[in-house]
Amino acid sequence: MKKLCKYGTHRVIEPIGILPQAAFKIDSTPVCYDNECLIEVNTLNIDSASFHQIKEACNQDTELMKEMILGIVKKQGKMQNPVTKSGGMLIGTVKEVGKDLKPGVKLATLVSLSLTPLHIEEIISINITNEQVKIKGQAVLFDSGIYAVIPADLDEKFVLAALDVAGAPAQVRKLAKPGDTVFIIGANGKSGLLCALEAKNQVGPTGSIIGLVRKQNQVEQLESLHLFDSIIVESATSSIEVYEKLSEVTNGELADLTINVVNTENTEMTSILCTKELGTVYFFSMATSFTKAALGAEGIGKDITMIIGNGYTKNHANITLDILKQNKQLFDLFMTRYA
Length: 339
Hints:
The chain is α/β, with parallel strands linked by helices. The chain contains eleven helices and 14 strands. It has two domains: 9-154, no CATH class; 167-338, Rossmann fold, CATH 3.40.50. The mean pLDDT is 93.
């Protein structure tokens, strides 16, 4: 019998010796080793950057998207977009157990699909709006894998959508300080809205929350949530234009904390330009290029702290669901969009 590793290296096929997330191909055979949990999967929540790339590549044709997703999983043994390198998460029911879970428990994995062995028998449907893919298949959770049991009183698709970005608002709880000006790039998405709510909780009455959206028709809904002090309408890739508009709104002060949760490329310099000297940028977006961010900040002589978004922080699942429960308007919006 092969030597089992709690981090899943026993599943790595190519190249040998590295962890599953970095591997090109892993073994997705739906069997349960002693240190694993086998899950009967019903829904994948593909991360926003990956879903956007697949949707654009397939011209929003769901049949072509099915073929593309099936091709990725068959080739690599996991749902790791070869362009964005990102994955997503899933919901399913425990089928077999090699760890401390009971068969029949419904759970959401809190580790990326980019490292999760996944076997798809059939893609039943793709929801273009909420980025969820209904499937028949199985997945493996390693001994080190974290998960959340789906609360009985909440819709599972709602929970999946919220927990997919749970790391973002939980990190914002640690980053935002009283009196801060917080600038959220991609304010209309689920992570942007959750970050705005938590940032507002943290900055208090002396701070301000400013959102950036691409379309004017998104402004009215955001204003109705009462989370933002100001909303800027501009493409996140138009760095100078966004910088000038934020400078005007902040009287040249810029942002203490910039949170980038937009799902498109080439927004690194927008984040950097809009952050004040010695401020902080939190790059949660999987479309972020470390090279562009690091060399871009150097190129304009900006001394700021740049944080790569970690999808996990302690108690992030409970934090995120609690954040939603405290704001009925946002809770209802998530239910409408994702449930």
